[in-house]
Amino acid sequence: xxxxxLLRILAIAAIALAGSGFAQDAQAAAQGAAPSQAEVxxxxxxxxxxxxxxxxxxxxxxxxxxxxxxxxxxxxTAGLGGWxxxxxxxxxxxxxxxxxxxxxxxGLGFSSxxxxxxxxxxxxxxxxxxxxxxxxxxxxVMVAHSAAAYVAIRFxxxxxxxxxxxxxxxxxxxxxxxxxxxxxxxxxxSETWHARVR
Length: 198
Prior knowledge:
Layout: H1 2-18, H2 22-30, H3 37-44, E1 52-57, E2 60-67, E3 73-77, H4 88-94, E4 100-104, H5 120-133, E5 140-145, H6 148-158, E6 163-169, H7 176-197
Parallel strand pairs: 3-4, 3-5, 5-6
Antiparallel strand pairs: 1-2, 2-4
Helix pairs in contact: 1-4, 5-6
């Protein structure tokens, strides 16, 4: 029964991400329509001021924006340079079913800067400490975009008993530049081979 609930949450997260409004916005813009100002205003309001500012170290805080109630807690991590507001179209619909927390990494949004490097190791440590000090326990479903995939994967690796699911949106992958180069080279080889065969 619990696994069905988890699968339902994961499916809703994936559907919400897939239908997050980007395609609809493009179609609406092409047809001359746009979301009403009231709709956008209501969705963006939680991100306009600090919500749950959690002290994680001396002189350092992390801002969490948590909506909804229930379990598992969906943790939204924005890609490089992004913060909680980038999830405004996704967080609200998901929060109708469970608790959903987006957060501002160090130096972004309403979180204080960090003296540490902003690499996956330190960003993950900030997230761990913020969740711990805010008393937001698992189980967690990690949702991450782009370079934040490293944070979600590292967090899941550090907390295998409490991370029950993960959704990675257009994730960065290790050595992705090398993978792209190899893929491009293979494509060129294939074109050359096809040209010789003809």
